[in-house]
Amino acid sequence: MTRYVCRTPGHAVALDVSRDAAAYVRELLGPYVRVAPGPDGPDDARWRIGTADRERPAGEEVVITSATEPPTRLWYDGTAREVLFDPAMPRSFLWHNLVRFTRILLRLMHAEEPEVFLHAGLVARDDGHGALVLGAKRAGKTSTVLSALRHGLRFVGNDDVSVRADAGGWTGRGWPRRVSVRGDTFAAVGLPGDTDRLLHPAELRDLAGGPELLAEAPVGVLVFPRFHPEPGVVPLGPEETLARLTANELPTVVKHADFLLPFFGPVPPAVRQDLLARLAAQVPGVELRQDFSALHDGTAALTGLLDGDVPVPPPAREGGRRT
User: Fold this and answer.
1) C-alpha–C-alpha distance, residues 196 and 178, integer Å
2) What are phi and psi of 242, to 5 degrees?
3) Domain CATH number, residue 225
4) How far is CA 256 from CA 64, 224, 227, in A?
5) Is a pLDDT exceeding 90 seen at residue 128?
6) How many whole angstroms separate alpha carbon 298 and alpha carbon 95?
């Protein structure tokens, strides 16, 4: 086994695996997580992931069951900060869990900062200006993102983006996870296919013929897509933008790993809400109304927003709220 370090800005997880396993993890986590051989001496990783080298290692045993996957057997030790998998699991499924728990641990670390996780996509121009696309299922989020890729914008994320404030404004970070695309969306953006598919970000990029993926991008506009008989861009005031942001905050940062939560200190809800309030006050929000049969028109409007052509909401009436 060789020590590798899986890294996002400010955080790291150690991975003690074979070279082939590391290559698999690197392929599925890139470019969001950098995977490289560790140093000869101590590293800065807070947690370690590996496979158990004895029948019963130290720590608590957990078996995660699912109707669609084999059982995941592992041991975790919060004092030693390590997660060890049963080496008897099928190799492909073991490698799948290496990817999954590297992502889980890094997300829990990021959640300890003033960083909020949203049900959102993020696309950006080559100069880095990005649009955060937020919405529930069937709102048109994935269609908007995929159409943007078809028109040369760069993919950062689709269903899962974390946002933080920094010295330069606001930055959105994508997370490596598969993208669910409905069959009718392919035809709507001029791509072959008519069945629902789950695609890794790199597969989605290759299919759309877009440029290289980005791990993160500055957020310059908040876009809430909606299919509507009268397409156009409707500006939103800060209060309405905040309400929609709050509705699209992910309820949990990770799934199927509650046993790890006691070892991390996430930001309190009040702090996250304050972060969203500042985001709504500082970054313009719009409702992008579009026709599913003419997504290219919505993409043209989105490009205009990134160019700075953002309409201003009317002033709120005294005692009322912005719309």
Assistant:
1) 13
2) -65, -40
3) 3.40.50
4) 7, 29, 34
5) no
6) 40
Give the H or E element holding residue 19.
Answer: helix 19-29
C-alpha pair distances (Å), 95 with each of 26, 27, 50, 253, 285: 11, 12, 10, 22, 40
Count the residues in the chain.
Answer: 323
CA–CA separation, 186 and 193 (whole Å): 6
- Alpha-carbon gap, residue 56 to 62, rounded angstroms: 12
Query: How much is the pLDDT for 302?
Result: 96
Which pair of structure tokens corresponds to residue 280? Answer: 């709504």
Output the pLDDT for position 317: 63
pLDDT in tens, 52-73: 987 778 899 999 998 999 999 9
CA dist., res. 233 & res. 285, Å (int): 10
Angle subtended at Cα 57 by Cα 20 and Cα 3, rounded to the nearest 5 degrees: 30
Find out whether 296 and 212 touch, Cβ atoms under 8 Å: no
Cis peptide before 31 (omega within 30 of 0): yes
Q: Are residues 285 and 143 in the same domain?
A: yes
Q: Per residue in 168-184, pLDDT tens?
A: 899 999 999 999 999 99
**Gyration radius (Cα) of the chain, Å:** 21
How far, in Å, CA of 97 to CA of 59, rounded? Answer: 18
Number of domains in the chain: 2
Asked if 122 and 245 sit in the same domain, the reply is yes
Residue 182 within a domain:
yes
Nearest-angstrom CA–CA distance, 246 and 263: 26
What Å distances lie between residue 222 and 123, 129, 136, 219, CA to CA? 11, 12, 14, 8
Residue ranges making up the domain that contains 145: 116-307
> How confident is the model over 220-240, as pLDDT tens digits?
999 999 999 999 999 999 999
N- to C-terminal Cα separation, the chain: 58
Q: Helix, strand or coil for residue 217?
A: strand
Q: What does the pLDDT look like over 65-98, one tens digit per residue? A: 989 999 999 999 999 999 999 999 999 999 999 9
Alpha carbon 92 to chain centroid distance? 24
